[in-house]
Amino acid sequence: MARLPDIWKTALSGAVFAVGLPLAGQAADCPLDAEAVAEPGAMVRFDLSAPCRAGQDVTLLHEGLSFTETIPPDGLLRIDLPALADPALIVAAFADGASAVATSPVTGLEDVARAAIDWSGPAEVALISADDSGAVGHFGTHRGDDSRHLRVASFKAGSDVPVLPEVVLTPDTCDRALTIHGALKMPGAATVFHTLTLTLPPCSETTEGRLLLPQLFPELGD
């Protein structure tokens, strides 16, 4: 079932977007400017110019998923992002409500299948595969325990998508609640969204190991 995460609701509520331009209400002497450009392999290059926000965290949102990045010292953030929709719409949102948006057509989305997950907190979550014969790329971010994180696995169209979400169990994450959002994009089909909320095993039972989560993507089961 499709969903709109709370962070999207916060970033988008009441906003009027000028695609590819800074949003209304930003300081004229220090605007945000966003640009998205199609790249081969169903990738999109997203550039965010934020000259007065060096060192600040920014949340990037695309097709129902989100992740945290930090504005570099020169004020220009550049991300090569695997697209999950055509056209691709990417929003950059700061904690104070400032935001910018850009869109781009996508080249080659019909040639790949993608599984993506996002989550927040100290847990380390991965997309693992026993067979990477059809893999054409992996994308991942992890900016710190208080950030939102993203993983994307891409495979050739027509191949299996043998991926499973996996949580690494550590003393820092045992007995913690964890919510993972998943998005599955198959060629020629709309993106399918899932949300999985669970409590990791108690520290008294285990402090290390790995926990597979096949229930996040039931479409990929046998």
Overview of this protein structure:
This protein has two domains: 6-104, Immunoglobulins (Immunoglobulin-like); 109-220, no CATH class. The chain has one helix and 15 strands, in the order αβββββββββββββββ. It has one helix at residues 6-12; strands at residues 33-39, 43-49, 57-62, 65-70, 76-82, 88-93, 99-104, 112-120, 124-129, 135-141, 148-156, 163-169, 177-185, 192-199, 209-212.
Keywords:
1 helix, 4-stranded antiparallel beta sheet, 5-stranded antiparallel beta sheet, 47% strand, Immunoglobulin-like, single chain, 3% helix, disordered N terminus, 15 strands
Can you summarize this structure?
The protein has 222 residues and is mainly beta.
Strands ordered across the widest β-sheet? 10-11-8-13-14
Q: How many structural domains can be distinguished in the coordinates?
A: 2
Helical content class:
under 10%
The average pLDDT value, as a whole number, equals 84
Structural class: mainly beta
**Shape type:** flat
Which percent range describes the beta-strand content?
over 45%
Amino- and carboxy-terminal Cα gap: 20 Å
Which residues sit in consecutive blocks of at least 5 with pLDDT less than 50?
1-25
Indicate the topology:
Blueprint: H1 6-12, E1 33-39, E2 43-49, E3 57-62, E4 65-70, E5 76-82, E6 88-93, E7 99-104, E8 112-120, E9 124-129, E10 135-141, E11 148-156, E12 163-169, E13 177-185, E14 192-199, E15 209-212
Keywords: Signal
Signal peptide: 1-27
